[in-house]
Specification:
This is Glutamate decarboxylase. Its EC number is 4.1.1.15. Belongs to the group II decarboxylase family. Its cofactor is pyridoxal 5'-phosphate. The chain is α/β, with parallel strands linked by helices and 463 residues long. It is built from twelve helices and 13 strands. The strands form three sheets. A seven-stranded mixed β-sheet has the order 1-7-6-5-4-2-3, sandwiched between helices. A four-stranded antiparallel β-sheet has the order 10-11-13-12. Strands 8-9 form a two-stranded antiparallel ribbon. The radius of gyration is 25 Å and the shape is globular. 42% of the residues are buried.
Length: 463
């Protein structure tokens, strides 16, 4: 009796069935359903076209966490952070995280027994945190000038900040009708100065933004000096202007690398601080925090109360529903590492960044702008006119998988082009050495080809 072949419908080939023969629509819902495994393969294969997140040296965002943290976060994807009555343990963890951040920044009136004494909230990254900090400053300005005939309704509030701020500050000003007063940079100086601040503030200034770790170079702005200048201005009967510190990049670095540097609530002029947990807080995106010096700096009008999820819940975030796993991941890091662990991590990252900075400085091709000693960020530019540009270097490194951004500096220094490497957890000393070797190879090729800025117009990296 002849052997019978199995029926063909029982064969389920991975790549010779539907996916290979009939492309799935990309701009409308497919007409038919597909098996989970097929849907997974389709999406997984397309995502292979992305660059490697671990080799993305443009981003400040965390790309590696402990497997145990990943497991905890996967277990809590389904918990809605806003539903504090249904998920009281997650709500308590959020309150503890806020309290730990506030304590790290030396906020007022904190105690070991009462985490609710901390005035702040977790957010979707620093973008939401910035919006909340800005709104609080605007509302306090409105309270100060009043709402009568000569009150705030006939005036235009303004916010003083460097041209080097992250774009979210521009968004805040546009969305909430605040005049942005950008302080220009200049070649060789990429942070704001106290003198610039004093020249820009007036009675309608809701606040001054100072950055702890700029995204352009990783530098720390002179926050204590800016606060001292504003203190003297107020003492001389000038406007009494608060300071908000944008510590998105440096808030989880400076307390451990430079614990004696005063930039936070130890300076009485600082009223609010935002920080990104998904940057050097070492947590996957997106988690951030905003904290205020004390409750008096968060106007009650910004707090809403709802009861339709069960229980009375105050909320003062822009986002409502969001997964609780981000806060859980941050809490894992806080417990897992503690102050000693964060200090060790930041010291290791700084050491790697400074090694890379030294190697670049000693080369014949580059001059450093920042060497990784402030926060683990190295920014540098080409020496002289080698016959190619920083954009050509960036494009050459892409062939090796590295994503090293090249970009122009902000207003006042737009003719300056910079390369930047962000050293994060997961970027080991071995990877730093590999980057250096690949950089040497790319530069050797460019020295021969001299493309003269062939990739200047590409500029794939946006601030």
């Amino acid at each position: 009796m002849p052997h019978k072949h199995p029926r063909t419908q029982h064969i389920s080939p991975a790549y010779t069935g539907r996916l290979a023969m009939a492309p799935v629509p990309s701009l409308r819902l497919p007409d038919e359903a597909m098996e989970p495994g097929a849907a997974y393969r389709f999406i997984h294969d397309e995502l292979m076209l992305d660059g490697s997140s671990r080799l993305n040296l443009a981003t400040f965002v965390t790309t590696w966490m402990d497997p145990e943290a990943e497991k905890l976060m996967a277990e809590t994807f389904d918990k809605n952070m806003i539903d504090k009555d249904e998920y009281p343990a997650t709500a308590a963890i959020e309150a503890r995280c806020v309290s730990m951040v506030a304590d790290l920044f030396h906020a007022e009136n904190l105690s070991d027994e009462d985490s609710s004494a901390a005035c702040g909230v977790s957010t979707i990254g620093s973008s939401e945190a910035v919006m909340l900090g800005g709104l609080a400053m605007k509302w306090r300005w409105r309270e100060k000038v009043g709402s009568g005939k000569d009150g705030w309704k006939g005036r235009t509030p303004n916010l003083v900040m460097g041209a080097n701020v992250q774009v979210v500050w521009e968004k805040f000003c546009r969305y909430f009708d605040v005049e942005p007063r950008y302080l220009p940079m200049e070649k060789g100086r990429y942070v704001i100065t106290p003198e610039q601040v004093l020249d820009a503030v007036d009675e309608d200034t809701i606040g001054v933004v100072a950055i702890l770790g700029t995204t352009y170079t990783g530098e720390l702005e002179p926050i204590a000096e800016i606060c001292a200048a504003l203190d003297q201005l107020a003492q001389d009967q000038g406007p009494d202007v608060p300071v908000h510190v944008d510590a998105a990049s440096g808030g989880f670095v400076v307390p451990f690398l430079h614990p004696d540097l005063e930039w936070d609530f130890r300076l009485p002029r600082v009223v609010s601080i935002n920080v990104s947990g998904h940057k050097y807080g070492l947590t996957y995106p997106g988690i951030g925090f905003v904290v205020w010096r004390s409750k008096e700096y968060l106007p009650e009008d910004l707090v809403f109360r709802v009861n339709y999820l069960g229980g009375d819940m105050p909320t003062f975030t822009l986002n409502f529903s969001r997964p609780g796993n981000q806060v859980v991941g941050q809490y894992y890091n806080f417990l897992r590492l503690g102050r000693a662990g964060y200090t060790q991590v930041m010291q290791c990252l700084s050491q790697t960044a400074r090694w890379l900075g030294d190697e670049l400085r000693d080369s014949e091709h580059f001059e450093l702008i920042t060497d990784g000693s402030a926060i683990p960020v190295v920014s540098f530019q080409l020496k002289g006119k080698p016959g190619y540009t920083e954009f050509d270097v960036s494009e050459g490194l892409r062939a090796f998988g590295w994503q090293v951004p090249a970009y122009t500096m902000p207003e006042g220094a737009t003719d300056v082009v910079v390369l930047r490497v962000v050293v994060r957890e997961g970027f080991s000393a071995d990877l730093a050495r590999a980057l250096k070797e690949d950089m040497i190879t790319v530069l050797g090729r460019l020295d021969k080809l001299k493309p003269s800025g062939a990739f200047n117009d590409l500029q794939p990296f946006a601030h």
